[in-house]
Amino acid sequence: MNKVKTLLLTVCAAIAMTFTANTVQAQSDFSDDQVEKFVLVYKDVIPAQKEMEQKLKKSVEDEGLTMERFQQIAIAAQSGDETMGGASEAEQTSFMTIAQSAMAMNQDLMMKMGESAEKHELEVTTFQQMAMAYAQDAAFKEKIDGIMGIEGDAAADEEEE
After folding, report:
1. Distance, CA of 13 to CA of 10 (rounded, Å)
2. Cα 107 to chain center, whole Å?
3. What is the DSSP string of 20-52?
4. What is the largest CA-CA distance in the chain?
5. DSSP 150
6. What confidence tens digit (pLDDT) does each residue in 75-125 have?
7. What is the pTM of this model?
């Protein structure tokens, strides 16, 4: 389940990058106050995120793909591979259906994140930068995961597989 959570945060970061339309390298030198607020925002949206995780997982299964195959196709598509990692036409159609559904769910999640960011007095652009840093900077991700208590969960998830 932690892999799905990481995938969703990565998707959120990718969409945030699309909406901000800038190609600035993600910064990761945020103040302790900003980090604390980022964690509070994230904790606010965990219930919606968990619901989205379940819907995404069900959507992938309903379309006849595994999460692993969906991720392989997503990575290939994101890198510009026109064959989408050698995906069959049926897999490509399934992927596109799932991706469209995920985008709609993610827009709702991003709205909730924006509302929570405002509630915790964290600028939405700062939150987006922090989400990008979480997706791109291993040290920053480790710091946030440590605060969130994800470290032990991630190790346990990897052992189960």
Report:
1. 5
2. 12
3. HT--PPPP----HHHHHHHHHHHHHHHHHHHHH
4. 48
5. H
6. 998 888 888 889 999 999 999 999 999 999 989 988 998 899 999 999 988
7. 0.60
